[in-house]
Amino acid sequence: MNGVRVPKVLSIKGLWVKSLSTICCVTSGLAGGKEGPMMHLGAIAGGSLPSALSWPSFKSDHERRDLAAAGFGAGIAVAFGAPIGGLLLSVEEGVSFWDLSLMWRSYLCILFAYFMGNLMLSLIEGQPGDFNNPDLLTFGKISSDVTEYELFEIFLFAMVGAIGGMSGALLIRLHVYITMFRKRFVNTKTRKLTESFLVGCMIAAFNLAAVMHIKSCFTWSNETLNDHSRLEPSQ
């Protein structure tokens, strides 16, 4: 997709490896996000569909790229409960050439995946048809008390955005050097496995040291634990 060809990036083997590695990474507390893997898993599901169909029209690279782009957006829509966001991200990251027909086909795929994700989640929670919790991965609920702001704070927001942009540019430059280093020295399976092990140990040690240093705990009352809508520390 998007003019970049990576061998076996949409293979079925990659689907299982990516799923297992994402579960292990997230549950272990490593510094790895869920957005990228969900996009990749959706793209694999869409890109692998032509191999399961006997229709000749779906065997071309053009159709395979379009299906991968639709799966790309569907993964975001199901994971974060954002069908419009999945479509926009698919436009931005998924394809090099976009047309109106592809947009409608992708949006139909995204809406269907979004609906099926909600349906499956409601069945798992034992409340069939209840679509009040549409996202699988949530960042928490933001109350209205913290969303109100004054006019002068817009300049502070702009400063934060500028700092974030410069930090992102610095991170990209640093990532280029790290990639060049890894390509030169971390080029065998043993070294790659050792690298993953060392990175995991470093992050685990940092998290443990941070917890031991902060030493901040909360006491939860039984009433609060039973009422999930009011999870606030007891006084």
TrEMBL record:
Query: Which Gene Ontology MF annotations are present?
Result: chloride transmembrane transporter activity
Topology relative to the lipid bilayer, per the entry, is: Multi-pass membrane protein
The cross-references to InterPro entries, in alphabetical order and at most eight, read: Cl-channel/antiporter, Cl-channel_core, ClC
**What transmembrane ranges does the database entry give?**
67-90, 102-124, 154-176, 197-214
Q: What is its main location?
A: membrane
Keyword annotations for this protein, in alphabetical order, are: CBS domain, Membrane, Repeat, Transmembrane, Transmembrane helix
Question: Gene3D superfamilies per the record?
Answer: Clc chloride channel (1.10.3080.10)
Question: GO CC terms for this protein?
Answer: lysosomal membrane
Its localization reads:
Membrane
Q: Which PANTHER family match?
A: CHLORIDE CHANNEL PROTEIN CLC FAMILY MEMBER (PTHR11689), H(+)_CL(-) EXCHANGE TRANSPORTER 7 (PTHR11689:SF136)
Protein name, as recorded = Uncharacterized protein
Q: Which organism is it from?
A: Homalodisca liturata
